[in-house]
Amino acid sequence: MSGLFTSKKVRNYRFKNRIIMPPMASEKATPTGEVTDKTINYYYERAKEGLGGVIVEHAFISEAGRFSKRQLSIAEDSMIDGLSSLASAIKSTGTVAIIQLSHAGCEAYHRCKPFSPSGISIPGKEEINSKKLSIGEISEIKTDFIKAAERAMKAGFDGVEIHGAHGYLLNQFNSPLTNHRQDKYGGSRENRARLSFEIAQDIREVVQDKLLLYRLGAVDQFEKGLTTPDAIWIAKELVRLGVDIIDISGGLGGYRGSKNTEGYFVTVAKEINQNLTKPVIVAGGITSPEYANKVVEEEKIDFVGIGRAILSRPDWPLSAKKELT
Ligand SMILES: Cc1cc2nc3c(=O)[nH]c(=O)nc-3n(C[C@H](O)[C@H](O)[C@H](O)COP(=O)(O)O)c2cc1C
């Protein structure tokens, strides 16, 4: 049996293989963010083909953190029924169902003045005029994350993933490029990551024995931005505070290299993984079964995220299994 198709237990959850569908915005929700039949079919069609786990796309935790028009919402209790149907559809296939919780920060640019840690926007989007969050507003955002996690639990998800990558709010806090605060949420590496740590700690209490993942923007890919040693330190702290799986990605304004290079975050993920006692997921340009298997068997990374390849070929896991056996 190839490494890619061995099962792995994390807490009480058995992933039947190492293939994860990473969060990918499908833009299939209603304008108010409800799950639609199209959302359910989209996930079910992929989960039934033999994925180990699905991380449902970024769901906004509050209107102020919404990224786009047809984004999924987890901001209201009225969303729970739809989310519950979605979780059941994924779980009915024997696939572990996680949902990503997100606040887009300054990227919530449908707002006339979105929030950000310091009123500084992410590189490449300098035109965004954002508002520096007050301590009170930061505290409200924490509460929004926690309530969103509670809704995910009520909906029956096996776990939640905190979105700390791709230039969204928590990545904006973690990065020295976008966080110039001088209070307890800015300055040192520890202060910049404090909001993520507090949210992770509180959500651990909410999810209890279910799974807690953190998607870490491990490298900003800009001079003076977050680097691998920072990411190792943040990841170790997150694990200490109760995160079960670190999901590695990067790029403060999105990934800046060639998206066709296979496994473009594998080197970073490997380094982080070697320093952790908990599993890691790595996504980024992985398309061939042999390479995905090599990431697990040789690079010793527990899970591979297969995104765009599964978007275009839902049967990727089944054909990978045939190819590898
Ligand atoms: C259409 C699309 C939507 C995405 N939406 C999200 C998202 O909601 N949350 C997130 O963390 N990453 C998102 N991503 C990034 C993917 O999770 C993944 O990291 C990236 O596509 C690289 O993996 P791949 O090369 O296998 O596609 C998205 C990517 C694509 C292509």
From TrEMBL:
| Swiss-Prot/TrEMBL keywords | Flavoprotein, FMN, NADP, Oxidoreductase
Q: Which InterPro entries match?
A: Aldolase_TIM, OxRdtase_FMN_N, YqjM-like
Cofactor(s) listed: FMN
According to the UniProt entry, its GO molecular function terms are:
FMN binding; NADP binding; NADPH dehydrogenase activity
NADH:flavin oxidoreductase/NADH oxidase N-terminal domain residues = 4-324
Domain of life of the source: Bacteria
UniProt cross-references to CDD domains, sorted A to Z = OYE_like_FMN_family (cd02803)
According to UniProt, the name of this protein is NADH oxidase
State the species of origin.
Answer: Natranaerobius trueperi
User: What taxonomic classification does the UniProt entry list for its organism?
Assistant: Bacteria, Bacillati, Bacillota, Clostridia, Natranaerobiales
